[in-house]
Design a protein that fits this description.
The protein contains 7 helices and 3 strands, in the order H-H-H-H-H-H-E-E-E-H. By secondary structure, it is of the alpha+beta class. A hairpin with a 2-residue loop joins strand 1 and strand 2. The radius of gyration is 37 Å and the shape is flat.
């Protein structure tokens, strides 16, 4: 409130909105707003007041619509979004999903439980040992490379360290064919 009083005094001393706004470091639109409030209601208008709306616009829902939403929820097990689309397509009623959600919550209906099927895992393997070998090379540090070979059938692994990242070391050690 003190800052706004200072802005009004600055405006009254300078007589110019531009100069006062520049001197106070605020936009002209802000200064215009506070000057108008000060002229209309006096010093009390400079206090901070809430900008929240006094009345929230809730859509009035009739009892017939509530029973229809409940019936759709029970029959089809739809969520608010799908109920809203169903009302629009089938009954030609444009009701938003948040309104449907509010009706469901107020009527105390439980949330929809989602069940997910776990897919069967297929193991990637070959029937004969040594048929396929997976190779990987990782740099461990300066001039140190780790060669890893894993057999697809037995899942056995062989690990060796080499100073150079080259296939020659791999072939000499017998890690790869």
């Amino acid at each position: 409130m003190k800052a706004r009083e200072t802005w009004i005094r600055c405006y009254e001393q300078l007589g110019s909105i531009n100069k006062a706004a520049r001197k106070c470091g605020i936009p002209r639109s802000t200064l215009y707003r506070w000057i108008k409030r000060f002229k209309d209601n006096g010093k009390d208008a400079l206090k901070v007041h809430s900008t929240r709306p006094k009345v929230l616009a809730k859509q009035k829902v009739s009892d017939e619509l509530v029973t229809l939403i409940k019936a759709i929820r029970v029959e089809y097990n739809f969520g608010p979004q799908r109920i809203s689309l169903h009302l629009l397509r089938v009954h030609n009623m444009d009701i938003s999903a948040p309104t449907v959600w509010r009706v469901i919550k107020e009527s105390g209906m439980p949330n929809i439980k989602k069940y997910r099927k776990h897919g069967q895992t297929t193991r990637y393997s070959r029937p004969i040992p040594g048929d396929r070998v997976q190779m990987d090379v990782t740099k461990i540090g300066a001039k140190c490379y780790q060669f890893t070979a894993i057999d697809d059938c037995t899942r056995m692994r062989a690990i060796k360290l080499y100073p150079i990242k080259s296939r020659i070391h791999c072939r000499l050690s017998g890690l790869c064919a």
